[in-house]
Amino acid sequence: MARLQEPALSVVEGCHQHVEHLGDLNLSEKFPNVRLHPTAIIEDDVTIGPGSSVWDSVHIRHGAQIGEQCIIGEKSYIAYDVRIGHRVKINAMVYICAAVTIEDGVMISAGTTFTNDRFPRATTPDVKHLRSSDPDEHTLTTVVREGATIGAQCTIGNDLTIGRFAMIGMGSLVTKSIPDFHLVIGAPARTIGYVCRCGEPIAKSVDVTSIAAQKLNCKCGLTYSVTQGVVTELNPPS
Questions:
Q1: Which of 61, 117, 125, 234 could cross-link 223 (Cys pair, CB 3.0–4.6 Å)?
Q2: For the domain bounded by 27-162, which CATH number is listed?
């Protein structure tokens, strides 16, 4: 089976805490600069960057890569070979399946579920054999770009990208890609405005197809231009 091609993203660079064999060794010895709850399950070949915290009953599958200064909330599940950048916050009971990449500075709120198969079946067509859970030609990727926020109890589809600093309202169902800085909500999720890097809305209840050109100012001092739904930063922080 061919390995899924990884997106060309700068995530988890420089992480050096590495597990080769779990065995009976103390995890604190393997990750001296990581805060690990004793009930966490960390499988073989997992990478976790220094300064990160992994809370109770978290399960991290083999091959997962987690960057520096991340927080993995209680009872969350991270599947094999998932890639997570630096300074990512994952709240409690989040399910992140295989073929998901999360860039730096992302916030994923409690109860969010990712998916990677649009037409899943438990068995072969004759219902006599279980299908493997390993990634195959039906496994589709999802990328969450830097700074994005996903609200509580969201369901994230697959074969899509959530844009930089986009914000998804709680309880949303994401079925298609979301552009940078868009504020979306609903089932399926739709754009209802734009947000700043700081998280404050800079426009609400907009019809993105009707805007020819507009300049938006945030109270934090950052400014943006919007042309037909495409948000461009005019003075991004250095």
A1: 234
A2: 2.160.10.10
